[in-house]
Design goal:
Shape of chain A: elongated
Structural class of chain A: alpha+beta
Number of helices of chain A: 6
Strand content of chain A: 35-45%
Oligomer: homodimer
């Protein structure tokens, strides 16, 4: 293996794959990045057994391929080295199965590598029946739903995002059993076989980071029995799936509501934010919303610290009172991309629904908290 | 106590004094900010017993004083409240000795306060014989010396910055006994009585943060037996001093050197930085510098990881070899404000000196490390 590559190109690719590097480092070789150089391209792979990221750099003026071959290099060191080099181009050459030389005009690194024969085999074959979706749309889905999943491993299915298709409708939902987020999007092309899978939410967060700089292109979702491979740009991102049956979230959403209230999202968010200042240290940051005489009030109190009252005039003749977690409300409000948010109330001990003011694609749901 | 104040003015002042708030919170009342409203101004004070910060806001269009008085308010909550209010102005009113009302048109916070009678008395009287120095100059002093002090409380005098005057020369030094930084500046006016004090380095770091936005004005250093009060803008910053005798650092600096080497600071810094990549996990990040045949080489190696060699052409006919801590070298190089740095070598087991290329005001010193 011997090649010369533009430093920034390699650095970007290393930054991408390194998101799969295990910091826990249970299997030593998984702290390495696998370099595989063919006659046409350089492939980099990293994996923590939970997710795998592979990226490609094609032969070009930025990548001169002198000799193909492969080796595994400790991710931490190769990243640091490439980042800190001042030169535009860098040479990488395998000396033997466990030695690699990285050099520029004035810098020379002799690194211990590991033979690729020790790297676990990872199958990244794609399917022919896959979902294609615009990257921005897909990022929006993750943003608007993934926050609502659970971090409690006791009920492992809830630690993931449920994706299911019914014809050309893709339904994505997450719930921790106290709140829920449900987003429906229309697919351009339906799958031959409908799917119903659960992707670990933390892996989707990693995928989201990889997608930050990707815009205006499509991402392909290739779904298998126990894994999903996402393909975009020059990247393959693989995640395991969670086994189990996801609860039918559609049934949890009330069909009928008492009344709707449309308010400015930013103003309402700030009211909730301020109302929770005095109890933001505690898990249960309970605040109370009250509507009366065309006035919406949000209050909260702590015997030790004091109390808050926030007011807003609203065009609503109802008399209503409900308590809920300010954190859950704020997290749900952050997913609303319209200036106004529509709050739907079902009853004083029933869920609150949140929707964007222009569409019904996204539903946020928060259970109330009983206060006595 | 009753007043109306422009939100941003109050927020800035709260941000300033809150740097003295104790996060450890040993004495509960010290988690509070003391509000004292006179007929002319609002005074805010916070202290953690180690440092005290006091700031003033004068009566103006931005501060309407309705009724003088005073109360102590929990720092964390008042800061959060003021930061999160959307309004331009905020009203603050003491209801009784332990209740304060903070309100705008639509927001109302009833906070539990504490009577000022419980706040420890803090004497912030100034002296008439004080040092006056330009804030930028003073920030530079802190930047160029304070990093070299020790964090080891076992030898407490070394955890501070030593300031001493001899006529109109102010000499500032810090050392952890493995390296040293010494800066001399000329004062415009000499003190009636020379001083020789030790200011805790961590308190100077807090002071530095307060000074970040302060430019082109003077700071006054009022020095007492056991404390220093720094006055600038509308702020008084008080720190305790460390008792004890500071070692005479001037004696530690070699008078004669073998040879000097002038190199580009950025290039040299980057070489050292790269040479330490492979051993930056360990405390002793030892690298070796070698000069031979007009070539400067920096090398380091780790049996487990590999080795690095960095090269630079230099105009120097010496043959020389020395090992030292890359971290210490990089920290010293960061204080050099000229494009070139002058390295002075005294011997292969003697200290290395660093100076700016245009002046002798700053001396950095690093002890070598013996390698066998």
């Amino acid at each position: 293996m011997k090649f010369k590559i533009k430093k920034n190109i390699l650095l970007d690719a290393l930054n991408d794959v390194s998101k799969a590097l295990s910091s826990k480092n249970i299997i030593p070789i998984l702290s390495g990045i696998k370099f595989n150089l063919t006659k046409e391209k350089l492939e980099l792979t990293a994996s923590d057994n939970d997710i795998t990221i592979k990226t490609f750099i094609e032969k070009s003026d930025d990548l001169e391929i002198i000799d193909s071959g492969s080796i595994v290099i400790k991710g931490k060191y190769i990243l640091d080295i490439i980042r800190k080099l001042d030169d535009d181009f860098v040479n990488i050459e395998k000396l033997d199965d466990s030695k690699v030389l990285i050099y520029t005009e004035n810098s020379e690194f002799n690194l211990n590598g590991i033979s690729v024969s020790e790297y676990p085999p990872i199958d990244l074959e794609l399917t022919t029946d896959f979902i294609t979706i615009n990257v921005n749309k897909f990022k929006e889905i993750i943003n608007q739903t993934n926050y609502a999943s659970s971090t409690d491993e006791a009920r492992v299915v809830l630690t993931g995002l449920n994706l299911k298709t019914e014809g050309n409708i893709l339904e994505c939902s997450a719930t921790d059993s106290y709140r829920l987020a449900l987003k429906k999007v229309q697919l351009e092309k339906k799958l031959e076989n409908d799917i119903n899978i659960i992707i670990p939410s933390k892996n989707l967060s990693e995928l989201y980071k990889l997608l930050t700089e990707t815009v205006d292109e499509n991402i392909e979702l290739h779904i298998f029995n126990n894994k999903i491979i996402c393909r975009f740009s020059n990247i393959l991102f693989q995640s395991r799936l969670i086994n189990g049956t996801y609860p039918n979230t559609t049934n949890l959403i009330p069909k009928e509501t008492l009344f709707d209230l449309k308010v400015n999202k930013r103003d309402f968010y700030n009211m909730v934010d301020r109302a929770s200042i005095l109890n933001n240290d505690r898990d249960n940051n309970v605040i109370t919303l009250e509507i009366n005489n065309k006035m919406l009030k949000i209050t909260s109190m702590s015997l030790e610290i004091g109390k808050v009252e926030e007011k807003m005039n609203v065009d609503c003749d109802e008399k209503f009172k409900i308590s809920f977690s300010s954190r859950y409300m704020m997290e749900a409000l952050r997913t609303i991309n319209t200036n106004d948010v529509v709050l739907s109330f079902v009853g004083e001990v029933k869920p609150i629904l949140l929707k964007e003011s222009t569409n019904e694609d996204l539903i946020g749901l928060i259970l109330p908290i009983r206060t006595y």
